[in-house]
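USER:
Before I trust my own judgement here, I would like a peer's view. Write it directly below this note and I will take it from there.

ASSISTANT:
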Amino acid sequence: MPELSAADVNGSSRDAVLRILAVVRSIPYGCVANYGQVAARAGLRGRARLVAWALKQVTPDDPVPWHRVVRSDGRIAFPEGSSSYAEQLRLLKREQLKLMNGRVHKAQFAWREADLDAQLWRQDS
């Protein structure tokens, strides 16, 4: 875990970063989530940029599957052609995720809004 100050980016606490990383760790193998979904699941709705900042702090020896987080449209956030883009693409392909026109297909997202709504509002009969 990276060393963080008492008040990190935008006054966010270490607890917020730890919650973000816990959510990222919970993304199933072979699935992705977008930055906004991760923020919402961490109780930080609207803090997608904080998710990106937290993932930048991850070191290679930390087992956080950062590569499973993509933009809301399914694209990799790094500039195409960069080494970071190539690494994320390699890791996603290793998990057999398919990209079409540079985007992960929505069916491969771990959490779709309809699924989340169904879980929240499900009533047992």
